[in-house]
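=== Structure Prediction Worksheet ===
Name of assembly: unnamed complex
Input type: mixed (protein and possibly other molecules)
Chain count: two
Listed entries:
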Amino acid sequence: MRQSKLFSRTLKEAPKDEVSVNAQLLARGGFISKLMAGVHTFLPLGFRVREKVIGIIREEMNALGASELLMPALHPRAAWDATGRWESMKSVMYQFRDLQGKEYGLGPTHEEIVAAIGTHIIFSYADLPISTYQIQTKFRSEARAKSGLMRGREFSMKDLYSFHADEQSLAEFYEVVKHAYLKVFKRMELTAFVTEASGGDFSKEHSHEFMVETSAGEDETVLCRLCGYAENKEISKLKSGATCPKCPGGVVEHVATSEVGNIFKLGTRFSEPLNLRYRDAAGALHPVIMASYGIGVDRLVGTIVEVHHDDRGIVWPRSVAPAAAHLVVLGEDEKVRAYAEKVYEALTKKGMEVLFDDRHEMSAGEKFTDADLIGIPARLVVSEKTLAHNKVEVKERKNGKPELVALKDLPALLGSNRE
RNA sequence: CGGGCUAUAGUGUAAUGGUAGCACGAGUCCUUUGGGAGGAUUUAGUCUGGGUUCGAAUCCCAGUAGCCCGACCA
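=== Predicted Assembly ===
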């Protein structure tokens, strides 16, 4: 990945209207470009981060035994009339007619669609439990899109759906997913706490939200830092300073958080109207019991930036960084340039992801400033100085001191820094 | 959807009713090369539509867009 050929550019100053940290840094670093409020392009660097985030989610979903599919974003009205949600979700769903007058909606979520597909797949208790997920673009007519990637109108989401014969099976899987979610966030170096929240349109029972503390967050969570107990402010009766209901000595406080995941026990809310049923061992018909589990992919990218940055720019966790190393060549000297090319080729051949700042006619300061802004974990410098020692300078983005390393030792060094 | 603020060049800004200027970027040339270098030269802008006025970036009205607060949020 040569920086001279990247379809993006860093900005010296943040766009004047952006206030949130993630919007400013992602725009300045050339990760995203805003088309309109709540709708963004992922430029090459941002796209790579998003792919890393998706990769982690995918691994953990596959580990649950869930299989991946891809459902459409364009839905006919009839699919939503079956559950009454064409009407009840009018305020958040993009709905429109085509030239023939047929009505369509852009999917804000996929319970109706997946349950309808399930009727062709699930017939017997022997088919259960089963689960499937997708990573797909959702559309929500947000009255107020805001804060960069934190609240969009078009955004990618991972949605997992599970199908069960009984409550017991659902409860077990629900707990397993809860732990998988925490693992997903932990791998991205995010500390998420699970809060009890309202079931919304889905369920009278409480749902669970996964919250990460960020100043750009639009949710408020009542949190006990001592034991980690958390409630969504919507349902909490606890004021800041109240004693924690779950642990002795704990005191709760209200903190700004960003919701990165939400899981719901759906029961038969969708299976009944859509006739998703199975036969038990005695041949009797029962509605399938369902649950759905969401992770906001784009919001995660924004949240990671909110949590992992300093005054010079983004500090990407290794697991989601757009590259493992940022190779910077200084000066125009041919020998230096040739050596940098050699380093780039060697590392790339080893399978390492390297962003190579091969741009010409730029001062060292400019390149370093860009590198800090972009926030790739390791910065490699090749210059006349380093070439004199036949070595490459390595510096960690996070609190790193520069040190000279021989090319042959680089892969091991950078590799060993991986998780 | 209510309230507030804002809209000038690719980006950031100045011009308070009287010649649209500056910096960065981009182009050409020279110099420079380890933390956003210097010089010369070129390039490019008042969101849209009305109105007031001799004259509008500036004042008024409407629209559109963005941001913030609130409501909403599968």
